[in-house]
Structure formats: structure tokens, C-alpha cells
Amino acid sequence: MPRFSATFGGIPSPARWGNYAEAFRVIWRYIVNTVGYAVAGSVCVMILSAVSGYLFAKKTFPGKETLFLMMLAIMMIPGILTLIPSYVLYENMGLTNTPWAIIVSSAAGGQIFGTFLCRTYMAGLPGELFEAARMDGATERRVFLQIVVPLSLPILATLFIMQSVGVYNDYIWPLLTIRDSNLQVISVGLTLFTKQFGVTDLGTRFAAYAISSVPLLFIFSFGMKYYIQGMTQGALKM
């Protein structure tokens, strides 16, 4: 059985840095896959949610409130209930065992909450800005891209972080839809890693766990300011 020695600084003595090199050699592909899926899915959610949120917040069309309430009702359905129907749908569409199984699922699943978040935030934006821009001859496209999007960057950054963390931590859906280990995500990859190195090689396993957390630490380190700002302003406008 492996032994552990407790130190005041939390660093084991002696430190075996070779475990990190060995772990990174195996899991780097899983990390690259997961980061790619998370970024692609989160960008799609940001775009779709920003457009939908702006329409629900600042535009008037028949059935707007009813449609919005229907979207809120969908949020109340546990995702596990739609797991098997979703898998059958993706299998029939030929998306299983491809990166699109993760990206499309992420974009479709996160859009509803993203729309709710953006709609709540954008409803508090002053309408005078939009009217002044239209009086100056700005098109609706220009109003959205040059006024709405810049003012909504905090909530969009918040949405990006939340969606990225969700994709990064997802386990059941990738395990169900991805069979090729070269396309697998880090959450499932760590399980495969444990099977490869065995349950007794704890040093390499813990090194892999530490390396896998670096992308999330990076996202939070650079986006925490916008995350807090977006959540605070969104809560106040609710």
C-alpha cells in the first residue's frame, strides 16, 4: 500500500514531479477535447441566448409571454428524464461518437437558462439608448452589436463561465454518446486513466486530478471579475 507523509506546506516529501509528466502524457488529449467542446458550446449558447434575450426583453410580438413561460417550464424538467430520448435522437441523427454530440447538446441545453439570464439583464438596459441610436439612423443589427452586446458583456461572460464549467464537469452524457477514447472528455478520461494505471498508483492519479483542474482555475482567474459583476447586476435587476 502507498504511504503518504503529511507536511506543513501540503507538498509531499519527497515530491515526485515525474508523476505529473506521466499523467500529462496520458490525459492531455482529454483536456484538449474538453476545452474545445466547452468553448464551442459556450460560444453557441452566448450567441443564441443574447439574441433570444434581447427579443424577449426589448421587442413585442404575439405570444411573447406565453412562449417565455413555456421556456421556463422546460427548465423545470430534470435533465435525467430526457437522457434516453435524447440519446435515441442523436443516434438517429448520426451525431453519437462525434464531437457534435457534446457541442450540440451543450448549446441546446444551455440556451434556455441563458435566454432567461440575458432577458432579465437586458430588460434593465435603458431604452433611451436604443431610441437615440435609431433616431441617428442605426439599424437593428447595429443597435444589437454595438450597444446591446457591449453593455451585456458581464452577463455574457457569466454565462460563458457557467456553461464551460457545466461541460467540463459533465460525465453521464459523454460516457453515453462517445465511444472513441480519442474523442473523450476529461471527466470520463480520468476514469479510463485510473483503469490504465490501477488503483494503487495514487501519486500519478492525484497528479492527473491536479492537472485536470488547471483549465477551470484559469477560467475563473481571468473571468471572476465579470462573473461576480454579472451575477450581482443580474440579481439586482431581477
UniProtKB/TrEMBL annotation:
GO terms for biological process: transmembrane transport. Its main location: membrane. Belongs to the binding-protein-dependent transport system permease family. One of its GO terms (cellular component) is plasma membrane. Pfam families: BPD_transp_1 (PF00528). PANTHER family: ABC TRANSPORTER PERMEASE PROTEIN MG189-RELATED, ABC TRANSPORTER PERMEASE PROTEIN MG189-RELATED-RELATED. It is found in: Cell membrane. The chain crosses the membrane at residues 35-56, 68-88, 100-122, 143-165, 206-228. It is a multi-pass membrane protein. This is Carbohydrate ABC transporter permease. Residues 31-228 form the ABC transmembrane type-1 domain. It comes from the Bacteria. Keywords: Cell membrane, Membrane, Transmembrane, Transmembrane helix, Transport.
